[in-house]
Amino acid sequence: MSDRSPEGPRLAQGREHVVATTDEIEPGGVKIVPIGRHGVGVYNVHGTYYAIANYCPHEGGPLCSGRPRGRSAVDPDAPGDAVMVRDLEFIYCPWHQWGFELATGTTAVKPEWSIRTYPVRVVGNEVLVTA
Amino acid sequence: MTIQDTRRPVPSAARTPIRVVDSDIHPVPRAGELAPYVPEPYRSKYYLTQQRGESIIYDAPDYLHARAMRVDTFPKDGNFAGSDPNLALRQAMVEGGSDIGILEPGFATHYLPEMTQALCTGANRWLANHWLDSVNNWHERWRGSICVAIEDAPGAVRQIEEWAGHPYMAQVLIRAEPRPAWGWPQYDPIWEAAVRHDMPVACHLSRGRDDAMPMPPVGFPSYNHDFMVTYSLLAANQVMSLIFDGVFDRFPALRIILVEHAFSWILPLMWRMDAIYAARKSSMDIKRKPSEYVKEHIKFTTQPLDYPEDKTELTRALELMEADKILLFSSDYPHWTYDDPRWLVKHLPERMREAVMFKNGIETYHLPDTVPALDGKTLVF
User: Is B120 helix (H, G, I), strand (E, B) or coil?
Assistant: First the structure.
């Protein structure tokens, strides 16, 4: 469980921010930083960092309070004919479980919709997000 | 140094108008909290001894993790979603923006009527002591349901008599699965007691045990998702029985609320019932057009809201069924089917918003116009 809005004062929008040190967000973890109206979630997926808006376009849920995991894929040899692939690369909204790909912001639920994604780069041990 | 007792919040002296009444919030007992309230012998002989595995027929996404709940509603103490009144207050009221929450505990219909009544008896005592008490309802925003097993009419009436005087009990709560249908005279004492105390009777969808699984006309569906759709059939059956079996003629002040059964189906059902009435009126005892009974006596909750891709078609349907007369807003917090009031209100024609979001609720549950103000609460519309 996490709060709907990030703590602390809001950062100015539309510029590059140092949001964390690399060891601050463990693989599979997230840090929600107070940028914009709903905050921005910064994810570490197996060492690659992604940033998305903490807002679900479906009903406005706090997207980054959801669970990152993979997506299901058909595998006739597996029990239940399905396996999970690409673990942690998707975020699932805590309210209605709409899933979005962290890297692209796209969703299979309603392909014409997507979430905001933001550029992230790592300089030394610092994580920088432009949002 | 001053020592301040911060454990018990003091209600704000300022009051705020009620703008959103949420007709469906689910409180859940913490582990071990309910059992002491369930009367013997069913506490020991049935509920505490019958070990049942979960009947996993639920296909909600990521079920083993999310348990068909909003995953942000599980409290930090490890108990289930909906078990912490303060977290529910923060999420459904402060953040969500509702002003009144009608609490509907879950209870399943069990094999023997007395078993279900024992569970309801426990649920009523538990709700009064753990949600509607002065510690947890200091903000005066929770309203409770008197849970009753309709299949045991004398026991149900005893529960209504015991709790109707409670200042925060707002409605009687029943289930739709027990047979026969609600129009049969064996239920009349329940309708009579509800009318005498001027309380609406709400029915929330459920899934009873054993024979009380809600069975559609051609048998049990293959999957959970088609099973969920069949709840509308069950509600439609009960609406027809209430009207054609004359319940509203016997109890002109009876008010029924159908919670979470969807509602778009009521428009064609009203047309169908009115057509039959026009053709066969001479052989019927009922006094008015069926659609008039619906609009005067029955309310439906907004969640789940169904709509086609083109939402202007939803607007037309709401106009045709006169939704401002028959709908009550509901969120279904903390379930994963939660509808945020700010999202829901956008779907209502502007002239219907006040009726559906709070006016019908205030009238239905006899609520005050205002509640103590809460700091930082979301204004929905």
Answer: helix
Q: Name every residue in B having a CB less than 8 A away from some CB of A.
A: 60-62, 65-66, 70-76, 91, 95, 336-340, 342-343
C-alpha span between B352 and B266 (Å, rounded) = 18
Inter-chain CB proximity A65 and B71 less than 8 Å: yes
Q: How far is A124 from chain B (nearest CA, A)?
A: 34
Contact B61 A95 (CB under 8 A): no
Helix, strand or coil for residue B245? coil
d(CA B381, CA B343): 10
State phi, psi for B350 to the nearest 5 degrees: -55, -40
Contact B348, B83 (CB under 8 A): no
List the single best residue of A67, A88, A96, A98 to mutate versus B (max B Cβ within 10 A): A96
- pLDDT tens track for B154-166: 999 999 999 999 9
Question: Which among A116, A107, A97 is positioned nearest to A59, based on CA atoms?
Answer: A97
Whether B373 and B16 have beta carbons less than 8 Å apart is answered as yes
CA distance B60 to B223: 11
Question: Do the Cβ atoms of B208 and B170 come closer than 8 Å?
Answer: no
Kindly list the residues from chain B whose CB atom is less than 8 angstroms away from the CB atom of residue A1. Answer: 71-76
The confidence score (pLDDT) of residue B282 equals 94
Q: Is B48 exposed, middle or buried (0-12, 13-18, 19+ CB in 10 A)?
A: exposed
CB-based contact A1 B74, cutoff 8 Å: yes
CA distance B357 to B343: 12
> Does pTM top 0.90 for this prediction?
yes
Taking 70 as the pLDDT cut, the residues of chain B under it are: 1-11, 51-57
For residue B217, report the phi and psi dihedrals to the nearest 5 degrees: -55, -30
Helix (H, G, I), strand (E, B) or coil at B324: helix
Q: Could you give the count of Cα atoms lying within 13 Å of B194 in the half-sphere of its Cβ?
A: 32
In this complex, which of A2, A69, A95 lies closest to B70 when CB atoms are compared? A95
Label residue B300 exposed, middle or buried (CB < 10 Å: 0-12, 13-18, 19+).
buried
